[in-house]
Each structure stands twice: as C-alpha cells, then as structure tokens.
C-alpha cells in the first residue's frame, strides 16, 4: 500500500515547454487534489476532483489543466510553462467522511527557466 | 472566506526548549483543524487533528487544543528534539462540502543540539 505516489520527483523545463505531472493513489479514495507550495505562501489549491469524471478549479488554476483518468489517477498538465510556475507540486487525497484530513504525495519539484 | 493565520518564523530553538506555534483561524461553521509537518525534502504528514471545540489532538509529544472562543489551535511541545526540525502548517477543513483544506503559510523550525 504505497498511498499517494507522484512522478517525476524533479523536472527542469524551459519557458514554453509542456509537461504532465502524474499522481496515483491506491487507497480507493474518491477525491484527489493538486496543490502548489511556494516560499511564504503555504499551499494553494490548483484543481481538485471530487469523484471520477469531475474536476473543479481551486484558488490558482490559471496555466494548468487536469485529467481524472480513473479513480486512481489524477494528472496535472502545464501546456506552456512559465517561470512563475516554478514551485513544488503536491498531490493529495482525503479518505472522505467527517474528518477531512488529506494524505499527501512526496511532491514534484519543478523549475522553469 | 475561510483563512488561517500562523506564526511564520523561521524559529531556531535549542534542544529541550519549549515550543509554541500560534495558529488562529476564521471560518464559518465548525471546521476540523489540523497540524501538518513537512520534513526536509518530503511531503506533508498529518501531525494531529481536532474535529470539535475543546478537543485536544496529540502525537509525538505535540499537543493542540481546539479553542472555539478564541478561534485558535496553537501547537505546543514541552521539549523539542533535533529531529523536530521541519516546517509546520496549520490547516482547517473547508466546510462547503468539497473536503478542501485551507493552509497557513507554514513555519520553519530548526532545533540545534
């Protein structure tokens, strides 16, 4: 039981390049989330998926797209990377129910030059 | 909207010192409250949680009490260790039904031997 996994761990892009960040969970949770972490900003929600087949915007969705491929996988795509998207990206998944805690993946550190 | 305000630091303490990290929140309704910890190079891990007023969450020697009257959830530990060096995030559950978490900006703690 790996929990939440993310690939890649590190990535360097040039401005304008595209890439997809992958996230998978093996906990049979319905919901999945993408956050970005920037120094002094805490974690900010990019997109989330409350169930398979649905996605919704979070606080900072501009420049990103997502796909909920199936119940296990939730990918985040940068179509044309910008230096402002240099950040650490975390995928998370809550078990649902009354407590609403979330389980986080190890993160992807992305640098856009 | 819902928000979390926490001490930002960075804070440096000597081993065995007492730790308090302040966290206050603004929310409609009665959210669940969380403390997450992020060790260097890793994702976020749930440290403790409280789901209703006057609940005390505790784990690994850390404690926090859900104070509705002061809208606070301060984190305390009586004697910190070098291994407690990490970034600490206070968070609350968004009560709109989406299971979103709202995070504070995080506080970096360094404990010296």
Question: What's the order of the H and E elements of chain A?
Answer: EEEEEEEEEEE
Per DSSP E runs of 2 or more residues, the count of β-strands of chain A stands at: 11
Q: Please report the number of helical segments of chain B.
A: 0
The amount of beta strand of chain A, in percent, is over 45%
Provide mean pLDDT of chain B, rounded: 92
Radius of gyration of chain B: 14 Å
The largest inter-chain interface, given as chain pair and residues per side, is: A-B, 27 and 21 residues
Main sheet specs of chain B: 6 strands, mixed
Helix content of chain B: under 10%
Helix content of chain A: under 10%
Q: Ends of chain A: how far apart?
A: 36 Å
Structural class of chain A: mainly beta
- Report the average pLDDT across residues of chain A: 93
Low-confidence stretches of chain B: none
Give the low-pLDDT segments of chain A: none
Which short descriptors sum up this protein?
heterodimer, A: about 110 residues, mainly beta, 7-stranded mixed sheet, 4-stranded antiparallel sheet, 11 strands, about 0% helix, globular, B: about 110 residues, 6-stranded mixed sheet
Describe the structure.
Chain A has 113 residues and is mostly beta strands. Chain A contains no helices and 11 strands. By secondary structure, chain B is mainly β. Helix content of chain B is 0%, strand content 50%. Chain B contains no helices and 12 strands. Chain B starts with a strand and ends with a strand.
Ordered list of secondary-structure elements with their pairings:
The complex is a heterodimer of chains A (113) and B (113).
Chain A: E1 4-7, E2 10-13, E3 19-25, E4 32-38, E5 42-49, E6 56-57, E7 65-68, E8 74-78, E9 87-93, E10 103-104, E11 108-112
Parallel strand pairs in A: 2-11
Antiparallel strand pairs in A: 1-3, 3-8, 4-5, 4-9, 5-6, 7-8, 9-10, 9-11
Chain B: E1 3-6, E2 11-14, E3 19-21, E4 23-26, E5 33-38, E6 44-50, E7 56-59, E8 62-65, E9 75-77, E10 86-93, E11 101-103, E12 107-112
Parallel strand pairs in B: 2-12
Antiparallel strand pairs in B: 1-4, 3-9, 5-6, 5-10, 7-8, 8-9, 10-11, 10-12
